[in-house]
UniProtKB/TrEMBL annotation:
Database matches in PANTHER family: PROTEASOME ACTIVATOR COMPLEX SUBUNIT 4
One Pfam family named in its UniProt record: HEAT_PSME4
GO MF: peptidase activator activity; proteasome binding
Species: Camelus dromedarius
SUPFAM superfamilies: ARM repeat
Keywords, ordered alphabetically: Proteasome
Domain Proteasome activator Blm10 middle HEAT repeats region: 216-461
Protein name stated in the entry: Proteasome activator complex subunit 4
Residue ranges of every copy of the Proteasome activator complex subunit 4-like HEAT repeat-like domain listed in the record: 810-1022
Length: 1402
């Protein structure tokens, strides 16, 4: 019902131009309440509500439709409602941004902007700029900004954010970067939606600054090479979607600004409308990648759609290069893919080509040459080429009438040269049509299945004549000749014309009907006529009916009465079943020839046609509608709007509309004859097959299951019948097909079931109770097969509701089945009892508080997130935790951890004191009947013992996981009955804790977690869960997490538990985080790898609270810079040490003091296992990946780089200085380059960049990733561009040799790798237009190329190079940058060929 009314309102508000804000105002809060109740249901996960899968999209669309009509003050109210949810460490952040995205109105008129986006724009754009790790909600912010930009073009200055916007969009494309093809592995599902990114870019285009166009050109320059047909990867789909949607979006904006009828919506100011030059610049920047994408591995569809839109804007820039690629493709027979791609693209630009106009007047002259050259594409040996050729010819023949206009040359003398050429060319239309028809007939001839027969007289006849001359023997064939069927199919298609055309061939058609009537049943095609029939045509139709229908009806009547025996072939005549529509009894057919399934299928088909056929079939109409829309998209002019469709399209649309009307209106009245036919269908479906009724209930694959209809009267009868059928003697349950049917039926009911409303004033409640009892009667039957018992229990579990407690009998049934022998039943019982406990939950009283009164501080004058004086009272403070009952009851506990971090709720409610809450410690007599059932069972030691035994069994070996359903069960137990069952459970808990098996540990964890969460409302004596409530747990965990008792596994587990507990408390436990960090810092050199990994994970959580977001106060929790400074201080003794760092053996319980250098070595080896360098590399890469993906901010990058510098030094001074170490070492730094980095942080010490070979190679690899992922930020800083250019060229020219312990030949090879990497980096920077071959660079390279090699001279015999013959000369040759520079330039661009050629020549 909700979806029905929602869709109705959506349709009413669909055309918002017709209703202004003055006409209509809609409240937003009822929509919010409905979305909150359904999309964030607190009971759905417990099975108390079942919503349809489509409800989310329907509700969001409803909000979107209502959004323009929200009151002016709605924005301020929404911000007050959802700002308290904005805690970046909590899942509520996602919820808040989701609500902002779908609810915030952005189409307010300019005079109301101060009540609209200006209230939140600076706040949210600042948040977006600050985040680095692409959280899921960042993409939703982009969606909001895109909508805001579109609705307010010209009213927001986006220029300060443009570099950041394009950098983020480029990064979101997830392209492989650099020579090592580094691919961002993170958060692929959180990447920006290309559609919204395109809308955002389009809305920012234009205006005085032209900054967006500059960056857009830079974006396509940097990614053009990825569109090359040789490239492929999962990132290609995003690139193609970008290419497809951006031109379409620009066309929509141009239509809005230039052609759309003005409405109440805010118009685009003249200063920000797109100019002709803007359009030209846009087409120019995108055309090259589009032309490359024509031959993409993913197909040419996206490129064709892009070209279609681009041609609407600038045909003179788009069509010529497309034609340059098309004409050669039409002449080539060996590259069908190229032909298919080019024809597809020409189809896209066809309308712009034939339209001519001022932009491309010579366009129509290409039409006839293209048509003539396309004729060879009608090739029976290549189906795909043939189809695209047909589409190509159909498109042009639809756009231009094939009429010979050459005579106009003699009639008019005012034609232009192009018009004269066109008129002259139309004389060749007749030749084209004749050749085309010849090829079509040739295709038809070659499409028959029998190609090898010799030429006979029949072959020489026309198809019509061949049908007339059929042999009499064919009439008795069971299987008809395939060629005959093919010819009949062709005839049926060409007779789909008005009757006037058919009258010319009436005699031949009658003869064909006489010869073929008993061979085929597709005579409905004859009746499709799209004009008012003349009296002669009507007479001919009645003649056919009188000649062929009447005799057959008489035969069928006699057959139905048993007076006439009919052979199988005549019984297949389609017209015979027509009598069934008028009441023919077919008992005789069912009783005597029930095995004649062909006839029965035809009977069913014709009954279905009579019920649903109104001139055409729905599936045929849908196919034609889909085809029409495809043709319309390929021919429409989106720039000028819908009224610019060609006449042929409008005619097709009228025909389809008429057909839709007949399908929708004709025969929609339900009559008795319809009911009779439905009963006939039911009888046929269940005539002699026991599974027929199951098929009726199941429905077709995509249809509605009758057993899950939204109707109490239906399911009250069907569900118990399904369960009881397990004992039916008529069911052949030994047949696998029957069993599969029941499985499919049960699965479909569960998939499609939606909670049915209960009208407590009608008989619905009685139906509900009857259904529950009937299902219980069914599953409790003796000898019921286990499968049907499980089906019945599953259906019973669907009847749990949040507005009515399950009947007592059902509650007892589910509780008892917690100890059922079958694990499937136990799982269903656990879920059901958890839901029942939620139904029985008592309401707890809440009261409103003022947090500012509690803190003693006034409300801040502006938004300030984080640790503030007014929320300090929520922090965990070991000095003020409640230790007495009085302190406990006087404390104000806030369970929601996100409240207070950003802002306080406008109406903040907390639970009232203990004395105002429902009574705890109740006796059995105080419980309701339903509660007594649960109480009795869980008070029974034997029942509990059996339950714990089952729960501690291993479910799936090696795959046992914490089960949320079991947790919810025990949470409900301890919430509803407090500690009543602890005496029974405690011995089992103690036993389980002492057991080391994984399944028992999992079981006890589920119970204890339920105990902690369920104790929320316990009294002081029983304790509960605000961090101040759980102080005993945290203090216990913090006592000695790395005591060593139980080994490294137990230590890691203790840390894991502590980490989970602290992570749940987020920002409210700074004291505990400081204490934990102080405890862990001396333990960073732990010898055990699993402990080190867990320490690293814990540190991630500790520093997660240190965020650099706008309007955020400095955190009271540990801060990253302070920690990093302490680590660097410990590494400082290693910075000036040149000797090799030995593999020191770290003892877990070392004795004696260690110097600073030894401690530094240990710290550096923290990531390294004892003797495994490969593991060191893996750990380092993992560390860097975590740092780049976590909350790492730009100002932290230099600190991390310093740590990594020491790490690189560690690699260099050990044995790993060989060639193999270079790529592995460099890859570790690439993730770090993905962090947004302001140029001011880079190259601050560029004079000191020289380091080891590893360092130089690593710098270049890091540089590739860093520049690409921060491309537009760097491009807006000239100093950064100069520094990067200097660095790359310097490494390209580097002539130093490191000839210490390393052999000369190895150093030479390493330097070659470094120099090649520098050349690759230079090529990449040139290719993405980060650097350009300007005059200074060209002069510099020319001078390098002119450098002459020194002559070979004698050396001292003691020179180390003498061990390698001619090494000196070889090295000097290698240092010449000429070949590398030239190759890198050629790879990057061909625009400077003359300069490169000149350099080579000199």
């Amino acid at each position: 019902m909700i979806q029905g009314f929602a869709r109705l309102l959506i349709n009413l508000l669909k055309k918002k131009e017709l209703l202004s804000r003055d006409d209509l105002e809609l409240p937003w809060r009822p929509l919010y309440d409905m979305v909150e109740r359904i999309l964030y249901s607190k009971t759905e996960h417990l099975g108390l509500n079942w919503f349809p899968n489509s409800v989310e999209n329907v509700l969001k669309t409803l909000v979107k439709s209502c959004r323009p009509y929200f009151p002016a003050d709605a924005t301020a109210e929404m911000l007050e409602e959802w700002r308290p949810l904005m805690c970046p460490f909590d899942v509520t952040m996602q919820k808040a941004i989701t609500y902002f995205e779908i609810f915030l109105p952005t189409s307010l008129p300019p005079e109301l902007h101060h009540k609209g986006f200006k209230l939140w724009f600076d706040e949210l754009i600042g948040l977006w700029v600050s985040v680095q790790n692409l959280p899921q909600w960042e993409g939703q912010l982009v969606n909001l900004f895109a909508r805001l930009a579109t609705d307010n073009i010209g009213y927001i200055d986006w220029d300060p954010y443009v570099p950041k916007i394009f950098t983020r969009i480029l990064r979101s494309l997830n392209l492989p970067v650099g020579s090592s093809q580094v691919l961002v592995p993170r958060f692929l599902t959180n990447a920006y939606d290309i559609g919204h990114a395109v809308i955002w870019i389009t809305a920012m285009m234009g205006g005085p600054s032209k900054l967006v166009q500059k960056h857009l050109a830079g974006l396509f320059n940097s990614i053009t090479s990825f569109y090359h047909p040789s490239n492929n990867g999962r990132w290609l789909n995003k690139l193609m979607k970008l290419l497809q949607r951006l031109p379409n979006s620009v066309v929509r904006r141009l239509h809005r600004e230039r052609y759309k009828k003005p409405s109440w919506l805010t118009p685009v100011p003249d200063s920000h409308k797109l100019t002709d030059q803007d359009v030209t610049d846009f087409v120019q920047c995108i055309i090259q990648p589009v032309l490359l994408a024509m031959f993409s591995k993913t197909g040419s569809l996206e490129a064709a759609q892009a070209l279609q839109n681009l041609a609407l804007m600038r045909p003179e820039m788009v069509i010529p290069p497309v034609l340059e690629r098309t004409y050669p493709a039409l002449e080539t027979l060996t590259e069908p893919h190229q032909l298919t791609a080019t024809l597809s693209c020409v189809i896209g630009v066809a309308r712009s080509l034939v339209s001519g106009g001022k932009w491309f007047p010579e366009g129509p002259t290409h039409m006839l040459p293209l048509l003539m050259r396309a004729l060879p594409g009608v090739d029976p040996n290549d189906f795909s080429k043939c189809m695209i050729t047909f589409q190509f010819i159909a498109t042009f023949s639809t756009l231009v009438p094939l009429v010979d206009c050459s005579s106009v040359l003699q009639e008019r003398d005012n034609l232009t040269e192009v018009e004269r050429e066109l008129c002259s060319a139309t004389a060749e239309f007749e030749d084209f049509v004749l050749q085309f028809m010849d090829r079509c007939f040739g295709l038809i001839e070659s499409s028959t299945l029998e190609q090898t027969r010799e030429e006979t007289e029949t072959e020489k006849m026309t198809h019509l004549e061949s049908l007339v001359e059929l042999d009499d023997d064919v009439l008795n064939d069971e299987e008809l000749d395939k060629e005959l069927l093919w010819n009949l199919q062709l005839l049926s298609e060409i007779t789909r014309v008005d009757g006037k055309k058919l009258l010319l061939y009436r005699e031949q058609l009658v003869k064909i009907l006489q010869r073929t009537l008993h061979l085929t049943w597709d005579l409905w095609n004859l009746g499709i006529q799209w004009h008012v029939p003349s009296s002669e045509e009507v007479a001919f139709a009645f003649y056919l009916l009188d000649s062929f229908l009447q005799p057959e009806l008489i035969k069928l009547q006699r057959c139905g009465d048993g007076e006439l025996e009919m052979s199988r072939v005549p019984s297949m005549v389609s017209l015979e079943e027509t009598k069934l529509y008028t009441g023919l009894e077919y008992d005789h057919i069912l009783n005597n020839s029930e095995d004649d399934t062909k006839s029965l299928f035809l009977i069913i088909k014709i009954i279905g046609d009579l019920l649903q056929f109104q001139g055409s079939h729905k599936h045929e109409f849908d196919s034609r509608w889909k085809s029409f829309n495809l043709v319309k998209k390929s021919m429409e002019n989106r720039l000028h709007g819908k009224k610019q469709h060609i006449r042929a399209l409008l005619i097709d649309r009228v025909m389809l509309q008429h057909e839709l009307r007949t399908l929708t209106v004709e025969g929609c009245e339900y009559k008795k004859i319809h009911q009779d036919m439905i009963r006939d269908l039911l009888r046929l479906s269940t005539s002699s097959y026991s599974q027929g009724a199951l098929y009726c209930l199941l429905g077709n694959h995509s249809g509605v299951c009758l057993a899950s209809l939204h109707d109490w009267d239906c399911i009250v009868q069907t569900w118990p019948a399904i369960v009881s059928s397990g004992l039916s003697q008529a069911m052949s349950l030994e047949k696998p097909s029957i069993v599969r049917l029941f499985d499919d039926l049960a699965e479909k009911i569960h998939r499609q079931y939606e909670t049915i409303g209960l009208d407590f004033t009608s008989g619905d409640e009685k139906n509900y109770e009857n259904l529950v009892n009937a299902l219980l009667d069914g599953v409790e039957q003796r000898n019921l097969p286990w499968k049907f018992e499980h089906i019945g229990i599953g259906l019973l579990s669907l009847l749990l509701r949040d507005d009515r407690v399950l009947p007592l009998r059902a509650i007892r049934f589910f509780v008892e089945n917690l100890n059922h022998d079958a694990i499937v039943v136990r799982k269903m019982a656990i879920s059901a009892v958890a839901g029942i406990l939620k139904q029985l939950k008592r309401t707890h009283k809440k009261l409103t508080i003022n947090p500012y009164d509690i803190s003693g501080y006034p409300k801040p004058t502006q938004i300030l997130a984080g640790d503030r004086p007014d929320n300090h009272w929520l922090h965990y403070d070991s000095n003020s935790i409640p230790r007495t009952k009085k302190e406990w009851e006087s404390s104000c506990f806030v369970e929601k951890t996100h409240w207070g971090y950003y802002t306080w709720p406008q109406n903040m409610v907390v639970y009232a004191g203990v004395e105002e809450q429902p009574k705890l410690g109740r006796s059995r007599e105080d419980l309701t009947e339903a509660e007594q059932i649960i109480f009795d069972h869980f008070s029974d030691p034997k029942f509990v013992e059996q339950l714990i035994t089952f729960l501690s069994l291993e479910d799936r070996k090696g795959k046992d996981k914490f089960n949320p359903r079991r947790f919810c069960l025990f949470k409900g137990i301890f919430r509803n009955f407090d500690d009543a069952f602890l005496p029974v459970l405690k011995p089992h808990l103690e036993r389980l804790v002492a057991d080391s098996h994984e399944s028992t540990q999992r079981c006890v964890a589920e119970i204890i977690a339920g105990l902690i969460r369920g104790s929320k409302h316990w009294t002081f004596e029983k304790e509960s869960r605000d961090p101040r409530k759980l102080h005993w747990l945290f203090e216990l965990l913090l006592e000695s997490p790395l005591s060593g008792e139980g080994g490294s596994f137990v230590d890691a587990c203790r840390l894991y538990v502590l980490q989970g507990g602290l992570a749940q408390q987020e920002w409210r436990v700074p004291e505990l985080l400081h204490r934990l960090l102080k405890y862990l810092e001396p333990k960073l050199t732990q010898v055990y790898k699993n402990v080190r990994e867990r320490i690293g994970s814990v540190l991630t959580y500790i520093f997660m609270i240190d965020v650099s977001l706008p309007n955020t106060a400095p955190t009271a929790s540990p801060r990253v810079p302070e920690f990093t400074a302490r680590i660097l201080e410990k590494l400082k003794p290693l910075m000036d040490v040149d000797e090799e760092i030995q593999n020191h053996v770290m003892e877990e319980n070392g004795i004696g003091e260690e110097d600073e250098r030894t401690q530094g070595i240990k710290l550096l080896k923290t990531m390294e296992n004892d003797n495994s360098y490969d593991e060191l590399k893996r750990d380092a890469k993992l560390c860097l990946s975590l740092m780049s993906q976590g909350l790492l901010y730009p100002h932290q990058v230099p600190l991390v780089l310093q740590v990594l510098k020491q790490y690189e030094r560690r690699l260099t001074l050990t044995k790993e200085t060989g060639l193999d170490s270079l790529p592995g070492s460099a890859t570790n730094f690439c993730d770090l380059g993905q962090v947004t980095q302001p140029p001011s942080y880079l190259f601050t010490q560029r004079a000191n960049y020289w380091g080891t070979l590893n360092t130089r190679y690593t710098v270049l690899t890091y540089l590739q990733t860093m520049v690409f992922y921060n491309l537009f930020i760097f491009l807006n800083n000239e100093d950064a561009v100069k520094d990067i250019r200097w660095l790359v060229i310097s490494l390209l020219e580097d002539e130093q040799l490191e000839l210490g312990r390393t052999f000369v030949n190895q150093s030479f090879l390493i330097y070659e790798i470094v120099r090649e990497m520098a050349a690759t980096t230079l090529s990449g920077l040139l290719q993405c237009n980060f650097l350009t071959i300007d005059s200074p660079m060209q002069i510099h390279f020319e001078q390098l190329c002119k450098t002459k090699l020194p002559k070979k001279r004698k050396r001292d015999p003691g020179f180390v190079g003498d061990t390698i013959p001619s090494a000196g000369v070889t090295l000097m040759v290698a240092f010449q940058p000429k070949p590398i520079v030239i190759s890198s330039c050629i790879v990057a661009t061909c625009l400077e060929v003359e300069a490169i050629t000149y350099a080579v020549a000199n």
